[in-house]
Amino acid sequence: MSNARQVAYRCLQRIDHDGAYANLLLQSELGRSKLSERDRGFVTELVYGTTRMRRACDALIDRFLMKEPQPELCTLLRLGAYQLHFAGVAAHAAVGETVELAPRPARGFVNAILRRVGDTPIVWPSDAVRLSYPDWIVERLRSELGDEAEPALVRMNEPAPVSIRDDGYRQDLASQWVAAAVEPAAGEQILDVCAAPGGKATAMAAAGASVIAADLQLHRARLITGVPVVVADAVAPPFPASSFDKVLIDAPCSGLGALRRRADARWRITEPDVESLAALQRDILAAASPLVRPDGWLIYSVCTLTAEESIEHPIPDGFEAIAAPPSDRWRPYGHGWRVLPQDHDTDGMVLIRYRRTS
Ligand SMILES: C[S@@+](CC[C@H](N)C(=O)[O-])C[C@H]1O[C@@H](n2cnc3c(N)ncnc32)[C@H](O)[C@@H]1O
Q1: How far is residue 208's CA from residue 53's CA, in Å, rounded to a whole number?
Q2: pLDDT of residue 285
Q3: pLDDT recorded at residue 1
């Protein structure tokens, strides 16, 4: 029988060494396990927490290593260090139960290292190590957010709260505010060009609008239910010009505002990705904006915090930014709006609303 730490250790090995996606793997492992609700919660915390805090855990451990241990033992030591430093697990349980997971010949070694990790205060070599992010993310958010970067980074190390809409759909509140900012109304024709898995499209349809949900990826488009779905590239959308009252571009982005939602995302995304995503977003803006009818709205959103992926994009030809705030939850940000993760305990997002003037 597997206990919670065994399941967590198995998941972490696959995330650390096989590139498995933390959220997909955890879902399937928990689906197969017979663990209690409480143990499932504990596995989730251990897997997501150890993955987020990987860099900080390595710093806690590396102080006591003479040479790099085998990869499985690295993962096990991270799991132990996470429990000791971040999860508030009592030291005897964190060490004792983690040592049990080690192959017999390695138990003395794991025990010795974890005891020292638990006993020895650390002087962090940098904020990026302490907060457990790649250097470039910390530098980027500092240059974008100044003093607000650290609270954002701290908040994105905490689990995301669960928010459930009236219709039972799980969706982060800031995403709900993006759908509300479209101001969908009965009888309106709305195109959502990057719609999968359908969170915002279904919210807009629930408000009475006729929504078409399009997405490039078939396997993701299949997740959308309750609205008509089209598999299409937003860079070459198969719709006539001026055919929608509103078009929503919830663009593919670096996700730097939503890092707490996917524990492994910070280790996957790279700085050059930001640049190529910004180029894709510009292409989508240019291709999707002509689909809006004169006087209609184009709404652009991203769950990242960088200007390069939002307010630095040129305003599409024939459009002006709408000056009215979408609601008082959004802070003014250039010609758009932004929420930071620490503002309302949501994902961080940027939103821009444009009106077609000609
Ligand atoms: C931020 S997600 C959308 C989330 C969705 N709006 C929701 O609320 O559930 C971005 C989506 O853009 C899609 N995508 C990426 N490149 C695209 C393209 N060139 N054309 C259309 N969709 C694209 C991705 O498959 C992904 O589903």
Answers
A1: 43
A2: 98
A3: 39
- For a substitution probing ligand 1, which of 178, 194, 273 has the most ligand atoms within 8 Å of its CB? 194
- State if residue 252 touches ligand 1 by the CB under 6 angstroms criterion: yes
pLDDT confidence bin for 263, thresholds 50/70/90: very high
Question: Which residue in 213, 215, 219, 166 sits closest to 192, CA to CA?
Answer: 213
User: What is the rounded CA–CA span in Å between residue 124 and residue 57?
Assistant: 11
User: 297 φ, ψ to 5°?
Assistant: -115, 145
Q: How far is CA 269 from the centre of its chain?
A: 11
Long-range contacts of 145-151 (CB under 8 A, 24+ apart): 145/305, 145/340, 148/340, 148/342, 151/340, 151/341, 151/342
d(CA 180, CA 248): 11
**What mean pLDDT is reported for the chain?**
97
Q: Which residues pair with 219 in a beta bridge?
A: none
pLDDT in tens, 77-118: 999 999 999 999 999 999 999 999 999 999 999 999 999 999
pLDDT digits (tens, 9 = 90+) for 11-58: 999 999 999 999 999 999 999 999 999 999 999 999 999 999 999 999
80 Cα: distance to centroid of ligand 1 (angstroms): 37
Instruction: Report whether residue 215 contacts ligand 1, using a CB cutoff of 6 Å.
Output: yes
CA angle (320 as vertex; 318, 322 as ends), nearest 5 = 150
Q: What is the 3-state secondary structure (H, E, C) of 81-126?
A: HHHHHCCCCCHHHHHHHHHHCCCHHHHHHHHHHHHHHHHCCCCCCC
pTM above 0.90, yes or no: yes
- Say if CB 304 and CB 251 are below 8 A apart: no
